[in-house]
Amino acid sequence: MLNNLTVQNAQKIHVTFDHCENVQVSKIQVTAPEDSPNTDGIHVTHTQNIRISDSVIETGDDCISIVNGSKNVQATGITCGPGHGISIGSLGSKNSEAHVSNVKVDGAKLTGTTNGVRIKTWQEILPLSNRA
To answer: What is the pTM of this model?
Structure first.
């Protein structure tokens, strides 16, 4: 369980959950300037059964980023913005297979974000000989 934490102005990702299980996150405050690149608020990778609730995330990038190997992710009561919103991916870089499943966002307030909730994928790059 992680709660009542404030993180400000990290140079890159603020909080990361990598290969975790059964995580409860609440009352987190993350802030970074709107023009700060690659400053994801909460980054979730290869993690299952994570609940992020009642948190405020104001960054220059994704409020929450959910990437390969993550499943059963819940985000409730999140206040997000500015930034890019809540992102699933990028998935499938270099024609790889990537899986994210069972993501639920409920009661989120997104203000001044470039997106709401989005899925980012890479386009398959075909060899020149296979192109029409």
So the answer is: 0.90
